[in-house]
């Protein structure tokens, strides 16, 4: 059997609609009606791309190189890179934790993770733009010589997860460390904010980050932390644990901030939803993205 027949047979065996199979076949024969092909057949007076008017419209140009196609391919390529990472994580989950993932789930998770990340980036860009117009909504650094912790929570009903993000800045506004983490299940917003603050305080303690200021954008959480009421629910347990941690940190001040001033923590929290494991970073490592 020659190479072409083998190729044709494997194409026929793919679970794709016949229309697409036919298109791929014509593509391989270079017989799709691009401007260049039509020009060579004397059906068209110009071989130039009718979309960008910049180059001859070959198959390669029409499908890959034309500037109108580049965005679609960069999206596909980004997804492909996320798939590589998710496949490797799935392999590790199977080998080390005996958890097998369905292929469809791997693909869905890669897509979700990419969507969340891009949405957070877009939001950050938009907020950076809008906050340059409104100085009052910009995050403020702590006093000289002190560190500030910002935290925020995110809840994803779609993935049934609650996540959190935290960053520590110095007085110059430099990020010294950051973390993002999540857990299964959805919490009430206030409970999620409390849980994220508690986890972030533990993370600061374990990493020797001596913070003096904390900012959260949930007013109710601050009210509950400052009240003397005892609450026996799981939320009450979180509140009590935070109070206990505060009692060992007498110089820490807790502040309320507006959501618009807490965007970095907010974006990390959004990103955390797609993570398989806790992500933690400090300024000694190169930063994988804009914080
Ligand atoms: Zn073009």
From TrEMBL:
Cross-referenced SUPFAM superfamilies: Ribonuclease H-like
Domain Reverse transcriptase zinc-binding: 6-73
Domain RNase H type-1: 150-271
One matching Pfam family: RVT_3
Molecular function via GO: nucleic acid binding; RNA-DNA hybrid ribonuclease activity
Transmembrane stretches, start-end: none
Gene3D superfamilies reported in the protein's UniProt record: Ribonuclease H-like superfamily/Ribonuclease H
PANTHER family from the UniProt entry: BNAC02G40300D PROTEIN (PTHR47074), POLYNUCLEOTIDYL TRANSFERASE, RIBONUCLEASE H-LIKE SUPERFAMILY PROTEIN (PTHR47074:SF48)
Protein name, per record: RNase H type-1 domain-containing protein
Organism, as annotated: Cannabis sativa (Hemp)
């Amino acid at each position: 059997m020659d190479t072409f027949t083998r190729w044709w047979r494997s194409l026929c065996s793919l679970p794709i609609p016949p229309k697409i199979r036919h298109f791929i076949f014509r593509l391989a024969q270079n017989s799709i009606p691009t401007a260049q092909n039509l020009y060579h057949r004397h059906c068209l007076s110009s071989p130039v791309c009718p979309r960008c008017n910049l180059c001859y419209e070959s198959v390669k140009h029409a499908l890959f190189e034309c500037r109108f196609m580049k965005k679609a391919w960069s999206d596909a390529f980004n997804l492909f890179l996320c798939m590589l990472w998710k496949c490797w994580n799935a392999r590790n989950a199977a080998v080390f934790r005996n958890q097998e993932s369905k292929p469809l789930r791997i693909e869905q998770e890669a897509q979700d993770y990419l969507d969340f990340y891009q949405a957070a980036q877009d939001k950050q860009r938009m907020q950076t733009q809008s906050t340059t117009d409104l100085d009052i909504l910009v995050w403020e650094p702590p006093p000289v010589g002190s560190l500030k912790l910002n935290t925020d929570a995110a809840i994803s009903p779609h993935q049934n997860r609650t996540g959190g993000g935290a960053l520590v800045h110095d007085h110059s506004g430099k990020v010294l460390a950051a973390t993002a983490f999540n857990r299964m299940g959805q919490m009430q917003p206030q409970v999620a904010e409390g849980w994220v603050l508690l986890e972030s305080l533990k993370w600061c303690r374990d990493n020797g980050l001596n913070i003096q200021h904390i900012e959260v954008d949930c007013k109710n959480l601050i009210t509950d932390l400052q009240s003397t009421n005892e609450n026996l629910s799981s939320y009450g347990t979180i509140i009590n644990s935070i109070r206990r941690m505060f009692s060992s940190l007498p110089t820490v001040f807790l502040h309320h901030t507006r959501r618009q001033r807490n965007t970095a923590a907010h974006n990390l929290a959004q990103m955390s939803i797609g993570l398989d494991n806790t992500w933690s970073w400090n300024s000694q490592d190169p930063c994988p993205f804009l914080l």
